[in-house]
Amino acid sequence: MKYRAVKGMNDILPEEAERFALVERTFRATVERLGFRELRTPIVEELGLFHKSTGETSEVVQKQMFLLDREREKLALRPEGTPSAARVYIGQSQWAKEPITKWYYIGPMFRAEQPQRGRYRQFHQAGCELYGDPGPLADAEMMHMLYRMTVELGLVGTTLELNSLGGSEARVEYRQRLKAFFSAKLETLSPHAIERLEDNPLRILDSKDPRDIAASEGAPILLDCLSEEDKTHFGEVCAALDELGTPYRVNPRLVRGLDYYTRTCFEISAQTGEIGSQNAILGGGRYDNMIAALGGENVPAIGFAMGLERILLAMPEAKTQSSSLCFFAPLGARAGRAALKLADQLRTQGLTVEVDGRDTSLKAKLRRANSLAAHVAVVLGETELDAGQAQLKLLAEHAQKDVPLSELVETVVRAFEGVRTP
Ligand code: AMP
After folding, report:
1. Which atom in ligand 1 lies closest to the alpha carbon of residue 79?
2. In degrees rounded to 5, what are phi and psi of residue 73?
3. What sign does the dihedral 130-132-134-137 (CA atoms) show?
4. Residue of 74, 84, 185, 313 with fewest CB within 10 Å of its CB?
5. Angle at 105 between CA 102 and CA 109, to 5 degrees
């Protein structure tokens, strides 16, 4: 019997893992430049945490949780990172808390979805959480940082869309208006939307069902229900984005799937690449009531999560080519030992070096150097050793030269100048 990976949970082979690592490095560098620090939390949490924060009426909690029943404990694999971070934040003693806390996380998330391209049951998110700053500048700076990151990753045709969901009062009023609007069109809605009408009519706007999309035509707009404070906040977010030169589009229909959002919410999608219908690469927003709802103090929060698989689908191939390699092809035991020593010196200079110590022909070794796309290959045989030199092959240029062993490290390092290394 051959075992396979569970449906929708993918093995990530080395070539793909290198692409993941590249995105993760860019993410870390970007967010660390704004003062975010890494938080690592367990993959398993108490189920109740997600009920309380992700929300009872969210699609994720209602349909997509991976549950673990351990005697009397009700546990779940995390479907997102925000609830765990909030749990840690609340659990800290009051005195350990700074007025503003900035955390980021990277890791696997689990949702029992119907797998398709760009939608998996185990996927990876990188996200940030910022606690303690209710101001619009925090929102604008976070979105601008994300826009910059998409440029650095080489993503083209990306769109940043944003909306304001207002505070709880605006939401209550909007819910009522939506309920009245959709109740008048009951017979045209999908059965799923009819179920949502009672508990969360906002989600009907999120539906991909053509019947619901048609029925949503002319639906009330949330921006019309905002309080004066909400409107001022949103106006200042937009003004700061304008000042920073961040391209964005206000989308009054953007609601986002999780229950906890208040005021600003945003999404970035990629229009190009292979991504097809799953084109949202990240989403986030403000959740000013969540910490208090989870038993903490009244602390505002804002955050986002981006899907690493989605980013990779949207990224141009050239951006993720693996780094360059120096390859040693020694012939014989004495040359093998000399190669290990030279390789060690080159690695301390920061190069990636492989020594092919197999007892095979030079031809077989060079074939491997080519298939690994090595930048240079060093051939070292008994004759070369006796003459105190090695043969250096510059594979990309189809050139070769003999180099004295005493100058080899320096010459190889020079050959890598301007070549991208990890
Ligand atoms: P969410 O936590 O639902 O707001 O999603 C944030 C981002 O995570 C989305 O924009 C996607 O890029 C990614 N994402 C969410 N669900 C999945 C999934 N099942 N498979 C792959 N990526 C996902």
Report:
1. 2
2. -85, 135
3. negative
4. 74
5. 140
Q: What is the mean pLDDT of each run of 10 residues along the chain (422 residues)?
A: 94 93 94 96 96 86 91 93 96 83 98 93 98 96 96 89 90 89 91 86 84 91 91 97 96 77 93 63 94 93 97 75 81 96 94 95 95 94 94 92 96 84 47
What is the pTM for the complete model shown?
0.84
Mapped onto helix, strand or coil, the DSSP state of residue 191 is helix
Q: Which is nearest to 77 in space by CA: 123, 43, 125?
A: 43
Q: What domains does the chain contain, in order, with CATH numbers? A: 14-167+226-314 (3.30.930.10), 325-415 (3.40.50.800)
State the distance from the centre of ligand 1 to the C-alpha of 270, rounded, in angstroms: 13
Spacing, Cα 118 to ligand 1 middle (Å): 9
Residue nearest to atom 20 of ligand 1 (CA): 119
Residue type, position 31, single letter = V
Task: Give buried/exposed letters for 339-365 (b at 16+ CB in 10 A, else e).
Answer: beebbeebeeeebbbbbbbeeeeeeeb
